[in-house]
Amino acid sequence: MIPGLDPNASTESRHPAASKKKLIIFASAGCGGLVVLGLALCVVLFLFPLVQRTAQKAGSPAGVSYIPPDCVGGVRLRVQDLLDLQIMKWLPVEVAEDFGKKRMGVDIHDIVEVIGLMSAPKVRSDEQYSGQSYVRYEDPDGGGIVRFSTSYELEDLFQWSEFQTQEVTMKDGGDALLISDGGLDVLFTMPDSRTLLIGTEGMGRKMIENKNGRNASSFTNQFATLKDESQLALVINVEAFPPEMMEEAREEIARERLPYRVDDLVGQLFRLESGDLQIQIDSGLLVTVTARAKDHTAAVKLHESLTQALERGREMILDESDFYTGDDMLDHSLGRYASRVSKQVIDLLQFEVGGQSVVFQTELIK
Prior knowledge:
Radius of gyration: 24 Å
Largest sheet: 13 strands, antiparallel
Helix content: 25-40%
Structural class: alpha+beta
């Protein structure tokens, strides 16, 4: 049963009971949507010279409300801002519009943003096999937040569903839809007319508990600093990963016998609090990467290590370019090319320290 639901409340099936295959189809449809989104992003980048913004959106979404502080990662997609790009006229927007209206009961142009969240996997057991120790993890909880620019009613959404959907009453008196089959439970609820929460059992409970976003953490603080202008953003909460998982990753990397400077840099990345990647599509493609260290001293050290690693990479490229020596004119040309491009990369990848953060920002396409 979903925590947060009233066990004594009545439930009513909105649709006939469905088979497990139909639930799998529903999940597959969601995965297919992500694939389409990825392909769409590739098309955007390929046709980028045609991109021009038609308008700037005013106002910002509801911050970090409903975002649990202990999530290990999150993705934010500013849907309205993406749809306002001129490049979208080259993409099959009509398909997304029809799917949203006929299958979900939503006009995609009313979606301000979509936030995807994932919790850290919990350790299930520590097992021994053939003299080796293995750690097993539970599947992480996942969920999402959809923020609308206009009001919707929960009862009007997902009318197309053919599998088992139940109307349930939560302990706070709110209405919710529950899709349950086998070991999979997905909760749909609208705490207000412009916010839709979708989540697994654990994530659904956590999102509701963090309605006001008052439980601050490194993850929520990083989320709160995301720029409204960034249509796509990814946030990673390094601190939330289980220590056992981090130790396994360290051991795997140690087996690779990385060069000293690179090995030291990787060790510092493991000690970060959080990080984020932001992409802003405007008249150019602006990429911003932020790494949040424990304190200012750690940030300065990380900056130095990144600079040294880049210089070492340039040295390796120039060493390779030394092989392009010979009587052939093309050999010398390739050597000059390697030297020129490696310098451009170094000039492009410039990092700055601000407080306890190291920030990299570049406009890849102007």
